[in-house]
Amino acid sequence: MKIFNFHLMPYAHANLEEIRRQGTSWVTYSNAFYDPKKGADLYHEYLDQLEFADKLGFDGVAVNEHHQTAYGIMPTPGVLAGALARSIKHGDVAVLGRALPLVNNPLVIAEEFATLDNLLRGRFIAGFVRGIGAEYHTMGINPAESHARFHEAHDLIIKAWTQPGPFEFDGRYYKFKHVNPWPRPYSEPYPRIFTPSSGSIDTIRWSAQKRYTYCQTLAPIAAVAQTFSLFREEADKAGYQATPDQLCWSNAIYVAETDELALKQVRPHLEAYANDFLSRNPVMMSPPGYSSVASVKRVRAMKAFMSQRQSAEDILEKGVVIVGSPNTVREKLAAYQDLAGFGISLTKTQFGTMPHAMVQENQIAIAKEVLPYFKNRLPQPHVKAAAE
Length: 388
Prior knowledge:
Largest sheet: 8 strands, parallel, barrel
Shape: globular
Number of helices: 16
CATH architecture: Alpha-Beta Barrel
Number of strands: 11
Oligomer: single chain
CATH superfamily: Luciferase-like domain
Distance between the termini: 21 Å
CATH topology: TIM Barrel
Radius of gyration: 20 Å
Helix content: 40-55%
Low-confidence stretches: none
Strand content: 15-25%
């Protein structure tokens, strides 16, 4: 298994009382609650944490993109990936991912990602997403065009990376007389592509057909296992057998000396993360036309665990995060890998309001007590039936 240190970069100083009053930390939670001096400190702490992860032996680090929310202050993840490109010496750097339909010029992303791939000499991972529903409100993009814009932008970027320019591109949404981006990607033919999703059947099917790596975002492990099973079925239909390194699960892990101590230490930060930072206006999250009916039903079922406030115990019971002693964390992560069959773990070591010193202690514990045990571990098929 490869274990990446994935960071959401939340605004840890958010006014939780105001978020609770509004019922959301997205779109309408005013940026008047953002203190630039505290925010600047957070950016440097978070970059320090990712650089520390590389020194500790994580297989890579990952950032992502969200807009107008305290949940994650990374509206332009390429800036942060660029800041990391010169300091991350061993692992990969992933942007998971850029929301293709939210930009008017996808060639900007083609250039940005190619530049990062050159800086990292091929250790870059490109993430392509449609962006969550709320971000169509923040950017003023018609959600009914989301699918079509995404696929056209994707096709343009891939063509720009693989076909020598200049050439003309005449699409429905994007029209260019001269497509000739500099630089070209360092990787041949282009960087590895990951496709994060909340469980949309459309994304699962498309990602399998393209033979990309599918990343399941926050969800109970039983739902994750079902999603990965669907991916393998779609891969079979496409004429190949999916491998574990095409499946990655986004999770959060916290390690302490005992289960009791770990839960006590992490409780306020985990509950703030799940109940406040993740709180969303359901109307804005599901704008008309954004998803197919099948995908809406599936994602709603997977996200049912977020529909009401929960205790840390509720979250742990569903297998959304892993918290405990080294032995407990190792056992659960192994059992979850065997159940779902993934080969990549996108592990958050910071979440919610967790302070810097606590994060680094957690990173050290994971590096010492977890990473060595999973370095060459693959899912164990004979264990899966027992787990189920």
